[in-house]
Amino acid sequence: MEALLLTAAFVSFILFLIPGRHSAYAGIAGWLSMSLFLFAEVPYYLSINNFLYPTMAVLSVPFLYVTAKRLRAGDKNVQYLTRAAAVAVLVYLPFGYTSLGDWLIEVVTGEVGWLLNMVGIQYSMYDWNMFIRNGLRVEIVLGCTGIQSVAIMLGVAAAVPTELRQKILAVLFIVPTIYILNLLRNVFVITAYTGQWFPYFPEIASNGEYGYESFFWAHNVLCELGALVALVIIAYALFALIPGLAKMADGLYRAYRDDLTGAFSRDR
Known about the structure:
The chain is mainly alpha-helical. Helices cover 77% and strands 4% of the residues. It contains ten helices and three strands, in the order H-H-H-H-H-E-E-E-H-H-H-H-H. The chain has a three-stranded antiparallel beta sheet, covered by helices on one side. Helix 1 packs antiparallel against helix 2, helix 1 crosses helix 4 and helix 2 runs antiparallel to helix 3.
């Protein structure tokens, strides 16, 4: 189901990028596919005590309402936002559904191992992409490579019309910054989990596995919050590089605020 929804989003967003009267409806279909994908992933994320993505799934419902309304009305800022989503999906899917994904996992695994050696952390390899230390295993999967964040921020950079120089500078800033931060994140999670740094509050952090609490606090809480802060800082840097993004963000804030406020006011 997840693969089918991502394929639907991929096709819809490609159609959105092709000018025509169909564009708004293709964009709506793309956003709808992404919202349904988030809901399809909810059981998995709840099973690992990750509440960020289920929250995003719930919030996608009012977001989808405003987005569909604004796309049909020809709102330029929402069109830019949809372009950002389209670019993000086009960047991510080749890694998600071809051998490029395994190649990237292998590269990240090797560099994480190099960094662990650099800081004196002893480990063994349980599998080609799985570290083991103190009897605890951590697998490097596609979500551990940072490709999702890279795709999102490249989409943001491509949202508004820019000069070629701005495009190049944005790519040179986004890709290495997120990649390096993600390597450090993996090192922190592996070290914290296998060293059992955070064995706290098992009533909310445990999923029944021995020592999972440390993984929960390191990966699902500290690193998720850190990633959000990092993406906000990167976004502000992009606003300085591409001033049109700040104008777009302000327009989006006003549009979604006004439409959601109006919708709630009518319900009372």
